[in-house]
Amino acid sequence: MKSYPPSASVASLTLDVNITAALASVDVMHHGRKVTIMRNQDQNNTVNPDFAKTSRKCPPFCIQPAELAPGVKTIGELEVLQFLKKINDGDASIMVVDSRTPDWVEKGAIPGTVNIPWDKLDIGKSGSTAVGDILEKQLSARRQDGFWNFDGAKTLVMYCNGSWCGQSPTNIKDLLKIGYPAHKLFWYRGGMQDWENLGLTTVEPLGK
């Protein structure tokens, strides 16, 4: 489902399909414009065909465990929305990261998230200098005496295409290896497949 135009007053609408009994929608900022996350109101709507496929070759598209790593909390849609609301309310210590490659992002993304393709955050593919730049400039980690200091680093909520996708799991495991605190890492295991299955708002890249 694509977002309402920024001028739409969703708050004034009475919705038939709410997120929860007490929550109709959540407003976020996405690339400088307001987007209202809500569920598709067409009760005959079906899932985006890009996320309807049940089977992909494994490996590499194998089912991920419910617990990815000790200390890393696995979360669902309502928790993702809570984090996005905190960001929208001005909490700069949190970032929701879309770990997918651009070809997948073009099919739709969660509003209010930041795309850092998994291979850009992978030292083996991108190199330590490029990864270091992301850690410092986007994730607020600091180099200190030859080591990484994550005291002020952002809390990251990471996702990709779903429970069969290894992009965000790869990044989370790599971040843990270099010392990123597990309590600052959250994993939305259901990813875009579950988000789309629930009819929640998605956005496409600007200019598309």
What do these coordinates show?
With 208 residues, the protein is of the alpha/beta class. It has a domain at 64-197: Rhodanese-like domain (Oxidized Rhodanese, domain 1). The protein is built from six helices and nine strands. The protein has helices at residues 77-88, 102-105, 123-126, 128-137, 167-177, 191-197, and strands at residues 26-30, 33-37, 73-75, 94-98, 114-115, 142-144, 147-149, 155-159, 185-188. The protein is globular and about 55 Å long. The two termini are 15 Å apart. The model is unreliable at 1-9 (pLDDT under 50).
Q: What characteristics describe this protein?
A:
208 residues, alpha/beta, Oxidized Rhodanese, domain 1, two-stranded antiparallel ribbon, 6 helices, disordered N terminus, Rhodanese-like_dom, transferase activity, Rhodanese-like_dom_sf, transferase, Sulfurtransferase
